[in-house]
Amino acid sequence: MVTVSPSEVLAAALSRPPTLGTGRLICVDGLAGSGKTTLARALAALAPEAVVLGTDEMLEGWRGLPGLGGSIEALLRPLAAARPGHWRRWDWYADRWDGTQTVTPGPLLVLEGVGSAASAYDDLVTLLVWVEADLDVRLARWLERDGEDMRPHWAAWLADEEALHRRENTRARADLVVRT
């Protein structure tokens, strides 16, 4: 396992050739509550030209992990061809899709979230970063962020993310591992 800082993650991505058309794609994947959003925000602070997208808004609710890779690929393939990409936004409060967002091609796109790095679009990923933390730390972070009311979703989410990462072999495909 290699542990790296946000500046090292950015340097590693920028040292590689573009993979998303003329831009680069960093996927920050890993386990719920491990610190993916924190890393993505740190990358955005280091690279103001970066567009950072959290994939939580691309999920079709709590059981949406299986379809996430297809939604992301539909966003990325046009970007790779120097065209705007689109994604549908999930409204967690209304429990339904709520509009389409557009992303224009740029120098750096950071996707962060559980399942953000599906193998179907490996050819477009410049750098895959896996973020992990101990289960008790992750649960404490989740409860702090989302509240006790979300605890009932935890067991199903853990099972879904484990199945997804096992099927995708995400950690083994990662270029870098960050442990928080």
Name a few traits of the molecule.
180 residues; 5-stranded parallel sheet; Rossmann fold; 7 strands; two-stranded antiparallel ribbon; alpha/beta
How many strands, what sense, and barrel or not for the largest sheet? 5 strands, parallel
**In CATH, what is the homologous superfamily?**
P-loop containing nucleotide triphosphate hydrolases
Along the chain, the helix and strand elements come as: HEHEHEEEEHHHE
Approximate helicity band:
25-40%
Low-pLDDT runs of 5+ residues are: none
| CATH structural fold name | Rossmann fold
**How many β-strand runs?**
7
What does this protein look like?
The chain has 6 helices and 7 strands, in the order H-E-H-E-H-E-E-E-E-H-H-H-E. The chain has helices spanning 6-14, 36-46, 65-80, 135-146, 151-168, 170-173; strands at 24-30, 51-54, 85-91, 96-103, 108-112, 127-132, 176-179. The strands form 2 sheets. A 5-stranded parallel beta sheet has the order 2-5-1-6-7. The radius of gyration is 15 Å and the shape is globular. The protein has one domain: Rossmann fold. Helices cover 39% and strands 23% of the residues. The chain is of the alpha/beta class and 180 residues long.
